[in-house]
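Chapter summary example: a protein plus S-adenosyl-L-homocysteine.
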Amino acid sequence: MKITIIGAGPGDPDLITVKGLKLLQEADVVMYADSLVSTELIERAKPNAEVIKTAGMHLEEMVALMVDRVQKNKKVVRVHTGDPAVYGATMEQIALLHKEGIKVDIIPGVSSVFAAAAAVGAELTIPDLTQTVILTRAEGRTPVPDTEKLRDLAKHHCTVALFLSATLTKKIVKEFLDAGWSEKTPVAVVYKATWPDQKILRSTLERLDEDMKANGMRKQAMILAGWALDEQIHNKDYRSKLYDKAFTHGFRKGVKE
Ligand code: SAH
C-alpha cells in the first residue's frame, strides 16, 4: 500500500516534473490544496479521477481519506505546491500514513524560491560575494527556534530567501539592520511567481515595507534579500572558477597567461 506526494511546482502547470505529471495522469484519486495549486494542472488528471480539495480539511480528515482510498486499491496522489520538502507539512501526514502501514513516495518539484530567482533573472550564489542561500521564514504565529532567529542567520551576509513572510516586512527589515545589513541592500520580491498575475518588485531594505504595502503584496510572495539580487550585478566583475581560463578542474586543464 502506497501513496505518492508530488511537487506541483510554483504555479505554471508546465513546471511539474515529467515524472510527477505521469503519476498525476495515472491517479484514481487526486488530493490537492486548492488555494495553492493551479486547477489547470489538476485538470490533467484522468477524467474519471476523484479530485479532492483539501484546503478546508484538517490533518486527520485528510489522512483518513487517503487510507480509505488506498485500502480500496486506488492509486492516490497528493499534490503539494512547489517542492514538498520546504514548508510542505508533509512529515505529519507521512507519520500517520506509516502508522497505517502505507508507504509514501515523494516526487520533487520546483520550489517557489527557484521560480522567483528565475523570474528576476538572478543567480543566488555569486562567486566572491556569497556561496550560501538560507531558506527561512520570519517568525509570526508559527514560532522559529531560538537558534534560528533571522538576525542571527543574517549575520552570514549571504542570500536569504523568506517564505511565508509577506505580512512581516517591518520585522524582517529590523532583523536585517540589527545584523548589520546596509539599508541599501537589494531585495527582490516575487508575488505569485509563474502565475499569470505574477508581479516583481525590486526594492531595498529601507523601502521594502512601504513598497510591498503599496503593491498589495501581502501573501504568496517570495522575498529574496542580499547583494546577489543587485540589479547592477552584470556590470560588476564577479566570475566563477568553473569557467575561469586559469582554473584546473576535473574536466579542463587551466592555462597560464
Ligand atoms: N513548498 C512550497 C512552499 C510552501 S509555503 C515551495 O517549495 O515553494 C508557502 C509560501 O511559499 C508562500 O507564503 C510564499 O512565500 C511561497 N510561495 C509559494 N508559491 C509561490 C509563488 N508562486 N510565488 C511566490 N511565492 C510563493
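Key point: The mean pLDDT is 94.
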